[in-house]
Amino acid sequence: MCLGIPGRVQEIYEADGVRMGKVNFGGIVKEVCLDYVPEIAVGDYTIVHVGFAITRIDEASAQETLRMFHDLGILEEELKPEDHIESVAPPACPVNPWGGAGGRAKSNNQDKK
Amino acid sequence: MRYLAEFRDGEIAQRLAAEVRRITTRPWAIMEVCGGQTHAIIRNGIDQLLPPEIELIHGPGCPVCVTPLEVIDKALAIASRPDVIFCSFGDMLRVPGSHKDLFRVKGEGGDVRVVYSPLDAVTIARDNPHKQVVFFGIGFETTAPANAMAVVVAKRQGLKNFSMLVSHVLVPPAIEAIMSSPTNRVQAFLAAGHVCSVMGYWQYPPLAEKYHTPIVVTGFEPLDILEGIRRAVRQLEAGEACVENAYPRAVTFEGNRPAQRMLAEVFELTDRAWRGIGVIPSSGWRLRDAYRDFDAEARFDVADIQAQESAVCRSGEVLQGLIKPNQCPAFGKQCTPRTPLGATMVSSEGACAAYYNYGRFA
Question: Looking at residues B331-348, what average pLDDT do you find?
Answer without folding.
Answer: 90
